[in-house]
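Example S7 (structure tokens).
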């Protein structure tokens, strides 16, 4: 039995990676980030030409009909290139919610438009994981009131997919009455995050299933964030190895020193198991749905911890140069840090995994 990627999946990874390397050089990433935007219009247009807005949209609605493992492969390439484009929320979480909780009329209305790039979604489900005082959404008579924090992929979004306090998902137009979007500044300048404030804002509810689909959407987001961290860690290791083979001290390249060799080897040894963990989480999401939430928790928590270790060690290999803007390592470092915390940090996600396995009681 072959436990690796299929030939088609390898081709997908190579195609997206090659495209992003052409469009997302460090200078281009820096230009976008320092320009006050978290989105590269050129890269977003190129990804749309590849059909990625319809990545998980069924073929019958004009999409590519791919699965979560394919989405994780693309997310890994995004992290490796530290690409300043929306992905997890807009290309996967929003269409997935409509596929699993939309009525047939809603699917016909929204999915073809998502696949074609005609509409773009931001996604706000953070309050189902943790909330602050004053955050959370309440639905009364088809209208939402409250605040949704850390809404993913909010820049240029014309609609939002949000969850109310009971886990029911709703679609809200960016032009709806009573809606205010406030951009939030995070450590990661390559992703757009915002706060939605709603005051009796009209919303279109999806099927009320008690929050089951919302939990699936969160699991999908966690898998994609883990994959993004995997790609970012791969990039930082590669840069550390190249630098260690070029930088000289005491008449020798530093890569010949045993301490540096061990650091590079330890980074590679720690990140490699994360690859199969992320791949299996993507596979299980579609093929073994009963395990999806649990393995998504494992992938998110473990890759988040390993990613942080790799980010720190890679900068250490670079010495003082690692802290400069010239090399730009901070873009990957901050992106991995963002991935680690959004949709639940390692501690919170591990606690959730324990609850799913019955090891601890769920707090109500």
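Recovered sequence:
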């Amino acid at each position: 039995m072959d436990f690796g990627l299929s030939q088609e999946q390898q081709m997908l990874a190579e195609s997206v990676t090659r495209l992003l390397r052409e469009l997302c050089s460090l200078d281009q990433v820096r230009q976008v980030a320092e320009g006050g935007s978290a989105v590269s219009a050129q890269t977003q247009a190129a990804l749309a030409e590849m059909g990625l807005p319809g990545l998980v949209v069924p073929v019958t609605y004009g999409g590519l009909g791919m699965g979560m493992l394919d989405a994780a492969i693309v997310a890994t390439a995004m992290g490796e290139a530290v690409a300043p484009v929306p992905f997890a929320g807009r290309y996967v979480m929003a269409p997935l919610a409509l596929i699993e909780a939309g009525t047939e009329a809603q699917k016909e209305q929204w999915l073809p438009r998502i696949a074609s790039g005609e509409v773009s979604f931001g996604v706000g489900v953070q309050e189902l994981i943790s909330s602050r005082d004053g955050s959370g959404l309440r639905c009364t008579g088809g209208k939402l009131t409250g605040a949704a924090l850390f809404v993913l992929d909010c820049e240029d979004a014309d609609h939002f997919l949000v969850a109310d306090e009971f886990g029911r998902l709703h679609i809200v137009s960016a032009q709806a009455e009573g809606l205010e979007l406030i951009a939030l500044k995070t450590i990661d300048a390559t992703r757009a995050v915002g706060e939605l404030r709603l005051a009796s804002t009209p919303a279109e509810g999806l099927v009320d299933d008690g929050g089951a689909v919302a939990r699936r959407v969160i699991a999908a987001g966690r898998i994609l964030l883990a994959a993004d961290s995997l790609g970012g860690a791969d990039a930082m290791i590669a840069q550390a190895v190249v630098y260690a083979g070029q930088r000289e001290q005491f008449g020798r390249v530093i890569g010949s020193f045993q301490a540096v060799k061990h650091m590079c080897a330890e980074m590679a040894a720690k990140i490699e198991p994360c690859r199969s963990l992320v791949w299996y989480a993507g596979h299980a999401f579609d093929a073994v749905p009963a395990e999806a939430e649990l393995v998504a928790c494992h992938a998110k928590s473990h890759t988040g911890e390993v990613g942080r270790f790799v980010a720190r060690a890679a900068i250490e290999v670079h010495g003082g140069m690692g802290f400069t803007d010239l090399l730009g390592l901070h873009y990957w470092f901050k992106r991995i840090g963002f991935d680690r915390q959004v949709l639940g940090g390692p501690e919170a996600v591990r606690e959730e995994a324990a609850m799913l396995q019955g090891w601890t009681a769920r707090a109500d």
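Notes on this example. The chain has a mean pLDDT of 94.
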